[in-house]
Amino acid sequence: MNVIKYLLELHARSVVRHRWWILVLGLLATLALGAQIGSLRINNDPDLWAPQNHEFTRTTRELERVFGGRNFTIIGLYPTSGDVYQPGILKKVQAIQQAIEAMPQAVRRNVVSLGARRVKDISATSEGMAAREMLDPIPTTPAEFAALRQAVARNPIYIDALVSSDGRAAAIVADFTVDGRDAAYAPLHERIQEVLAPHRDATVEIVVGGQPVNAAHLEMAMQKMPVYFGIAFLIILAVQYFAFRSVQGMVLPLATGLLAVVWGLGTMALAGVSMDALNTTTPILIMAVATGHSVQILKRYYEELALRAPGAIDLRQASREAVEASLRLVAPVMAIAGLIAAAAFFSLLVSDVEMIRNFGLFAGCGILAAMVIELTIIPALRAILPPKLPPALRRQDVLDRGLARLGVWLTDPRHARRVVGACLVMLAVVSLGALRIEADSSFKQYFQPDSPVRQADARLNASFGGTDSVAFLIEGPTPDSMKDPRVLLAMRHLQDFLEAQPHVGKTQSVADLLARMNQAMHGDDPSRNSVPTAPNLAAQYLLLYSLSGDPEDFDNLVDASYQRAVVWAYLKTDSTTYALDLYQRSLPLIAREFPPGFNVRLGGSLPQTVASNESLVATKTSNILQIALIVFVLSSLALRSLVGGLLVVVPLAAIVLMNLGLMGWLGVPLDMGTASITAMVTGIGADYEIYMLYRLREEYRRHADLDGALQRSLATSGKAVLLVAISIAGGYAALLISDFEFYPRLGSTMMITMGASAVLSLLFLRAMVALIRPRFITGVTVPVGALPVSTS
Question: Per CATH, which fold does 2-28+224-439+609-778 belong to?
Answer without folding.
Answer: Multidrug efflux transporter AcrB transmembrane fold (1.20.1640)
